[in-house]
Amino acid sequence: MLITTAGWLLLLAAVALVAWFIAGLDAGGRPRSLSDLSRQLLIGLALEHGMARRGSTEVIRVWYVATLATPSAPSAAAVTAGVDLTPFLTRDGLTTPNSGSTLDVSDASSRQNKTAAGTFGGDPIELKLNRDDTPANDTAWVTLPRGTAGYIVVRRFGGSAVAATAAQKVEVWPVEVISRENAPIAENAKQMFTARCAIPGAVFDDATLAA
Question: Which range of residues forms the domain containing residue 32?
C-alpha cells in the first residue's frame, strides 16, 4: 500500500509528538514541569543556533591601557580611553599563557610519586599585530615599543566594535614590552610584528568593569 505525502507528514508528526512526550518525562517516568520543558527547549535552541559557543573574530576586543587606578575592577571609561588594538590584531594574534607549577612532595614511605601546587603565572604573553605603511596609522607599532609598561585588557565576548561598559567581564594583564619584532618578509605576505610582554604583577582574569 502506498503512503501519500499527507500520510508521511502525519506519521512524522506522530513520531515527533512521541519524542516530545518522552523528553517531557523525568528519570522516574513522571511528567516534567513546564518550566523544565521550557528550559530544555531554550537550551536546545541555543545549541542549535550556536549561541553557546563563539569564535573570537568580531567577538573579542583588546585594548592597551597605560594606567589603571584599580586593575582588579577597572572603570569602563579608563578602558575606553586606552588604545584599541583589535583592528591591528591578527586572528590568531593573542597568546595569554598562565601556567602553574608543581613541587615534589614524595617521600621514602611509598613508591607513589606525589606533587603539590607550586607557583603559577608569569609566562610572557604575545600579540601579533599588523603594520600600516602610513606612520600616522601605524598605531599598534607606535604604542608598543620595547620597555612600554601598562595593561593589556581583553574582553573575550561582547563584540569587536562594541564599547566597554560597566558589568562586562574582562582580563587585565599588567605588562612590560620586552621585545617588538617585525615578522620575516615573505612573498604575498602582509607585514606584521610580534610584541612579547613580561608580566610584572598580578593578573585579573575575571575582572568586572566598573562604572
Answer: 5-48
